[in-house]
Amino acid sequence: MIAIAGYRLLQAGLVALMIGALTFVLVHSLPGDMAYRIAAGRYGYDLVDTAAAEAVRRELGLDQPAILAFGAWLWDLLRFELGVSLVSGVPVVEEIRHQLGHSVELALVAIFLSLLIGPPIGILAGLRPGSLFDRIVFLVSIGLRALPQFVIGLLLIYLVSVWAGLLPAAGHGGTRHGILPALTLALGLAAVSSRVARDATLAVTASAYYRFGRTKGLSPGETFRRHGLRNVSVPVLTYLGVQLVYLVEGVVVVETLFAWPGIGHALVHAIVARDVPMIQGTALVMGLMFVLLNAAVDLICHLIDPRRKEA
Amino acid sequence: MKRTVPTLAAAVLAAVLALPSLPFSAAAEDRPLTVVAPWEIKGLDPAVTGYAFTRMEAAETFVEVDEEGLPIPALARSWEVSEEGRLWRFELRPEVRFHDGTPLTAEAVVQALTVAQGKPGVLDKAPIEAIEAEGDGHVVIRLSEPFSPLLAFLAHTSAQILAPASYAADGSVQEIIGTGPYRVTAVEPPQRLLLERFDDYWGEAPAIARTVFLAAGRGETRTLLAESGDAQIVFNLDPASVQRLARNESLEVVAVPLPRVVTLKVNAALEPLADPRARQALSLAIDRAGIAAALLRQPEVAATQLFPPGMGAWHDAALPPLTRDLDAAEALLAELGWQPGADGILEREGARFAVTLRTYPDRPELPLLATALEDQLREIGVEVTIAIGNSGDIPAGHQDGTLELGLIARNFSLVPDPLGTLLQDFGPEGGDWGAMNWSDEGLTNAMEALLGSADPAGAEAERRRITSVLQEDLPVIPVVWYLQTAAISRGLEGASVDPFERSYRLSRMRWAP
Amino acid sequence: MTGLVETAPLRGGSGGTAARRLRPARVVGLLLLAALALFALAVPLLVEGSPTRQNLMQTLQAPGGGHLLGTDHLGRDMALRLAGAIRVSLGIALVTTAFGALLGVGLGILAGARGGLVDRLLSALADMVLALPGLLLVLLLVAIAPGAFWPLYLGISLVLWIEYFRMARAAAIRISASPAVEASRLLGFGPLYLLRRHYWPEIAPMILTVAAFGSATAILSVAALGFVNVGVRPPTPELGQMMIELLPYYYEAPLALALPILVVFLLVLSLNLIAGGKTR
């Protein structure tokens, strides 16, 4: 257990360093004058001009040689000083706090919904392999994973919001606004977790200990509850860890589509506007969040599956 | 297990759907008026996001403008000019209060204007020597030279008047405390702004008590918000949605001409583009009618000259219009020595007629128009490579000389009097968003004459000179004009659209009974 | 060694290598992919014109009258554009898969066979790269050279190689421990022989599965990039960009929008089916 935590901590540190260095190098080697881009991001295309860019250049000391800038940045990073957004002037930490909350909200609801939808359907399919239900689930899940996320999102918007008028189409203002974006992400996740659950169920029900339970005289339900559930949940949760990549990347697209003010949305804007501190901040947060979620998954797996304690 | 999961799911779903959503659970009269536009809120600085606060009528400017763009009194009740146009004396409107209860004083105005002058915006481009308070009720602005567009500059949103308490010691804005009929209750960058009626407003109190501004970047999202009724006013409809929304019975779609033009900014120092005939050839190849009808769904915006009819005195109906004539274009280019090469692209002395067109995606129609232009120019043998980047690339490219062609959406009434913008764009050194490596003495003289003049007839002649030079020499090639489109709920009365995009005029609206 | 999340591929249904290869799902997938590739190659040869030629008088036309699948919002022939877009997508898929496979399999076998410090270092590296949101990496690279292809190739390859690495490493660990390899080693055979005789035959078939998934991921990633406005330079046809461009017209010309969506769907579906019907 300590080993897990220690390893993840080390990983988090290395991730932070790597992301920071990478964003710094990439952004400073971007073509185009940084001052102009930042000024355009700040003042808009009607007001951006040389005077504005020069003002930005002076204010931010952009004519320092890169080595000095890198050194200064490295020092700041070590002190958790993430700086101030070059576009809005608000400290990066504050901006991220707002946005992170929104993204985490979205991610957690998406994970929750996907666990609600996916594994149960997968288990049902696994208990009846080869049946019509199983095949339909297979087709649907493969179909969902073949569609880009924004297409799923658009379909949902069109069906639920415009045609049925049940939920708002975009924006952020109440619980109702969060359902469609979360569902968009959840459906993709559920497609995979249902497959994993199905395969796991199949493997478990075919195993010796499971059959022994039935031989003992336990009813199907009891057998499943006692011997099946826990064994099925291990691969499902493990795969959830793998899927977090899909989630984190999906957040970028879904937030743009639904005008959800989260980290993904902020990241895209920051890249376009060359807001280096924001790029670094959002990338860092996304990376660390990923490590954290993986650590959580590791922990839960560890708790559920005693065999892992030996590993 | 098999039974509990579906039940649980159903319960959660039912609970969630039953949750009241803010706008819908409030009483009918209390519900907020929601306005949707593409522009995000980037902070509190008037130089950066000022337009949000003036459009939602939380902050006001010293001087306002009327329907024709002429200055009218606002926080300044009257003004007089003396010393041959170098001294302006403004009388403050009495009994005006800021949202925090403090009175509007000359000191407060001076502070606000001075802070605005120190930031990128418009005031820093006016030849202002000093801004001083004279007693409690007067403000004096001293200029280094006469500047007739001063009033228009003072009407720009970056010069909005905020209370002294809004500013921190370093001039940054901590809070928006203005004088407008609505008071800011919450700012949630990048998307939402919440306001409520200010009861101590100096003018007529608005009928609608609460308003909301929501930023939605994608056109389809805005359309959906209009259709679902989640927003009552939606701006910048994308061309494809306009017809559909117009058929919607609960909405009214309006189109208002704007003093904004899509132009091709040309680097006149570039070999192939140096001769005005080359620029004319490019202009003759553009299918403006096709673009206006098929892409923008607004046939009337095909530009015949730089200034649209909505710009009144600047639009010269007598000018020979810009047209499409491929044969004439090819003839002009042949005259200049260009011959088609093997792949159809023109060549001259071993050089190809190949240019890079820069544009930006902030206005979604620009990349689309760039794609259309690329094909149209290829028809006369010009090879265009499209580079979609950041809007800052245009002024950057102007400064370092790397810009070849730029497709931009130029706002000629950045301040209500276009002369201010023209001075920036077509002066002797050109401008970041205007002419590049091009100038014309006659035009420069005409603009200077206009700066100092007060004679309408003389002004007319100078304007004609300016527009005809621009039409013939084409330092920037006009492509299409702009029509601002908006979908307005029929549940609103008294709605109108400001052609200068300065205000959403929510204070003049009321809910239909 | 914890760190890499190891999941043994779960096999459901039929067993046996031969039966797996001929599973109907796989065949359907291959046929579908072949059909799409055929479409992409044949259409430009059979249809007049170019995918970038516009006709503003004939925008959003329904199929017919000289345009097999109608025209888009700029009057360009949809069939030609789709063919071009499929070529772009398959091209990206091919390059990123090849590059990712080369890197990933190579390093994976190295890590799995050598073990020890080499393995730990490489695994840590893989973990770290995995922590970097793939889309972020590609976004930044694309920002360096907007509209070019190489950032897409590089970025997506860097994201994909990890799958190959994991798969190859897990297999290599297993293979290294097998008695056959031990015997070969004791007999004095060098690493190249071991590679050719023991590792490669086992790993090669698994590459197909990962490659199919990787290609699907690559295609979807590029489409997503088009959505956030950092795709390839216009007027190059690309599926994601076509979707975004035609999106506003979904009401009046749903077919035009449906076509690129359908093509992406079929492409990715076929690749998933080829991979053996496992979703990821």
Task: Write up what this structure looks like.
The complex is a heterotrimer of chains A (311), B (513) and C (280). With 311 residues, chain A is an all-alpha fold. Chain A has helices at residues 2-28, 34-43, 50-60, 66-78, 92-127, 132-145, 149-163, 175-205, 208-216, 220-258, 263-273, 276-304. Chain A is built from 12 helices and no strands. The mean pLDDT of chain A is 77. In chain B, 30% of the residues lie in helices and 24% in strands. In chain B, helix 8 (276-285) runs antiparallel to helix 10. Chain B is globular, with a radius of gyration of 25 Å. Chain C has 280 residues and is an all-alpha fold. Chain C contains 10 helices and no strands. In chain C, helix 2 (24-46) packs across helix 3 (78-114), helix 5 runs antiparallel to helix 6 and helix 8 (191-227) packs parallel to helix 9 (239-246). The longest helix of chain C is centred in the middle third of the chain and has 37 residues, at 78-114. Chain C is elongated, with a radius of gyration of 22 Å. Mean pLDDT of chain C is 80; it is low at 1-21. At the A-B interface, helix 2, helix 3, helix 5, helix 7 and helix 8 of A face helix 1, helix 6, helix 12 and strand 20 of B.
